[in-house]
Specification:
This protein has eleven helices and eleven strands. By secondary structure, the chain is α/β, with parallel strands linked by helices. β2, α1 and β3 form a beta-alpha-beta unit. The chain is elongated, with a radius of gyration of 19 Å. The relative contact order is 0.21.
């Protein structure tokens, strides 16, 4: 079974090919940081016993977007069965609102990177925001200054982490005139690789994808420069057996290995 992949923005879905006997169609809302990891997760899931219901195959349809926007869609009645948020707060808000089925669980922890087009000198690993400083200096001196991309902090957890990083380094206010805000972190990665940008702060999981890594350079941002990006998932009201099976699969060592391949680390246990 083939699973085509493209850069998907908010509201677009990753659909699987029609199946001869579909018993359980599951609509998943997933943070954009998962868009490259998700096809591998789905392929492993559907090829295992977990991906088969008693009446036939489980058909998964995934919509990617900023976690805040997806949360709002769920609150407005969007027919999702499972929500994979890029942070804890969005998922817990839905739990507290009584819109979930049982308790949620942390499934991964993300990292932030500085991403830029290939062919440009990379900043030192111990000074990953040097390009931001240079862009700000150019702006202050009245010369040309390239833009800085990040996801919108108002509804994207990776955007909020990017803001925390820039604030910690004393660069948030000075860089505001240069900021290109993506609706989600995947769009921010596209902006970061544009000709007008110095680069941007995006999810590590996106730069781990070969098709992006081939045309980009990146530096990891120290994890203590922002609050932990703990990603949490919840089953939503009315979720059926198919959603429950995928929810359980994402907690298995097999799924966790795939997530590690895409730059995620295991969530801290013992909550």
């Amino acid at each position: 079974m083939r699973f085509p992949l493209s850069i998907l923005l908010l509201g677009l879905s990753l659909g699987l090919a029609p199946m001869s006997a579909v018993a359980d169609r599951v609509h998943v809302a997933a943070a954009s940081s998962l868009q490259f990891a998700m096809p591998s997760l789905i392929e492993r899931f559907t090829s295992s016993d977990s991906g088969v219901s008693k009446d036939g195959d489980i058909d998964l349809s995934v919509t990617f977007g900023a976690s805040g926007n997806l949360q709002r869609q769920i609150e407005q009645g969007a027919p999702f069965a499972l929500f994979l948020s890029a942070d804890e707060r969005r998922a817990r808000d839905l739990e507290q609102a009584g819109l979930t089925q049982g308790d949620g669980v942390d499934y991964a922890q993300g990292r932030l990177v500085w991403l830029q087009r290939d062919g440009r000198p990379l900043p030192p690993q111990d000074a990953p925001l040097e390009a931001v400083r240079e862009a700000v200096a150019g702006l202050e001196q009245g010369g040309p200054a390239r833009r800085i991309a990040l996801a919108n902090p108002r509804h994207a957890p990776y955007g909020m982490a990017a803001r925390e990083v820039l604030e910690r380094q004393g660069l948030w206010q000075a860089s505001e005139p240069l900021q290109l805000l993506g609706e989600n972190v995947a769009q921010a990665a596209q902006f970061a690789l544009s000709a007008e940008a110095s680069g941007g702060l995006v999810a590590y999981s996106l730069v781990k994808a070969p098709r992006l890594a081939e045309r980009a350079g990146w530096r990891l941002i120290p994890s203590d420069w922002h609050r932990p990006l703990v990603q949490r998932m919840v089953l939503l009201e009315g979720a059926g057996a198919g959603a429950e099976a995928f929810f359980d699969f994402l907690q298995t060592p097999e799924a966790q290995e795939i997530l590690r391949d895409y730059g995620f680390t295991a969530p801290v246990t013992g909550e």
